[in-house]
Amino acid sequence: MGLSRIGAGLGCLLGAMVAPAALAFTDADAVRVLTFARAQLADTTAELPGVTRSPKSSLSNGTWTTVANTDRIAWTQGFFPGSMWLMFQVASEPIWRERADLWTRPLEVQKTNTETHDLGFKMYTSYGEAWRLTGNTYYRDVLLTSADSLATRYNSQIGIIDCCDWNPNWNIPLVTDTMVDLQLLLWASQNGRPAYRAMAINHALKTLADAVRPDGSSFHYVDYRADGTIRSRGTYQGYSTTSTWARGQAWLIYGYSMMYRYTGDARFLTAARRVTDYYLANLPADLVPNWDFNAPMQYKDSSAAAIVASALLELSGLETDATRRTRYRTAALGMLDSLVSPAYLAQGTNSPGLLLHGVGNLPAGQEIDVSLIYGDYYFLEALLRFNPRPNYPWYAKLSFSRSQHLLGTNNTGTRAVEFDLTPLRDVIDGGVVGWTDSSTEVTSFSRLNLAVRLSTDGIYQARNGAGWSWLRRIPYVRGRTDHFRLSVDLVARRYSVWVTVPGAAEVQLVNNVAFRSDGPFINDLGRAAVIATTEDSEFRVNSHRVYSPKQPPAVARAEKLPDALWEQLDVPEPFSLEPTTSER
Ligand code: GLY
């Protein structure tokens, strides 16, 4: 990663005729950061005294400030559960679903809160992610009630969501932040509340007309009289009336990209371009803005960079103009490249967060140069927009509950399974990769219907009825990655396993052997477990996928999936039944 190269690249980004600079951000960077995020989030769940308060910003002693989940005006409580939902998306580990659910449910009290415009932030990041990733109607019902509450704040005379009753200086205000709250209304408009679509569209158009300046920069707030005339406009968290607060601009970029995704209305694509082009043209070399583009006080705001990186990965996937598409994607990857560098990543520091150098509210003297839970959330979202299904390793776990990964409920009949396995010790004392169905909790080895074992003899074996079988002695070797392919017949309760070691042809380990004789009855291939017996991480599994060999997937893996497809998280990757060595 080279920041000077990114800075040089920015000139290219803005010169449409010049090819963009090559960027260094890769899947490996995303996996590295997700691994760090996993540890940080786990530590935070362990450190917090209970689920009544959610983390907000870092303190110099390495802990988080927290906000009561019942606080009606605070806007940040959804980001911690939301981050855990994103972590569940990474590797489908039930532990992250459990943790995310535990921190989501305390926010149900907010669903009838009509005192804030920020219900979109609070509820879409928590309950919205929960609904997207689980399809559990409890989450959807809470979201719909929340949308009903937010809709009560719509002022039909002016055509805006009224934002901030708490500020006595304002009459009927909007802030640029509210653009992101609109997602709750747009989602609801597609889920039984069609009237909310017009509210979101009207609010977005009014914000565009009155908060966005001709050059694409923005006021933070606009305050209206009851008749819709402007009373005042300026800033609350930025530097001055004429300046542009970086995060306020980030909310506009995110908001108009999201509006265009939901509506397909070209006015929102044009708006997204305008606010984005101002933002990109005013960035410093490392693509992380000062907290306000016009302020003399120099404090980077990494949260703005994370929000914009995520937004531009979305916008570049929707953009109709090829040159802009490349420019926005290149900019987003440059931002991520910067954020994952030691200059911004909290790894190796005492921060409990992911990103250093965020600014909450500088004019109020609050949260200056800290980690911010919302910066971390959008950072994770950006990583998963870069690749919704990162090649995240499944490290073997001693704990049965932590060893499991959910595969969905659709894997019935005959299925193919593939994965790569890398031993990380010389002798692995019976560690297994095993499978059972989606409803079977793995509490012991005996719950696994089929399994591949790394035996104490140093060879691979496969479960066969009451014992273990192998047709050939295939030794496993520390650090060498072998490729496995299974053909599983869930009706006959039989399976075959093939192994490919690097540089050699595929060989069969077992042929049509029986599921474990005392295993539970299973309906689907819904759960994989990667279990260690000596220490955590004694081996790892990569690129695990399960698919129907009879129905090759029609949808190839995309770097940016539309939201409708995100709901089908078990869309497998393209495959060949006889992959070439180079594909492994
Ligand atoms: N929505 C409040 C902020 O961005 O700080």
TrEMBL record:
The keyword Kinase does not apply. Keywords: Hydrolase, Signal. Residues 1-24 form the signal peptide. It holds the Pfam family Glyco_hydro_88. The active site is at 118 (nucleophile), 177 (proton donor). One of its GO terms (biological process) is polysaccharide catabolic process. Substrate binds at residues 118, 177, 235, 247, 251. It comes from the Bacteria. GO terms for molecular function: chondroitin hydrolase activity. Belongs to the glycosyl hydrolase 88 family. This is Alpha-12C2-mannosidase.
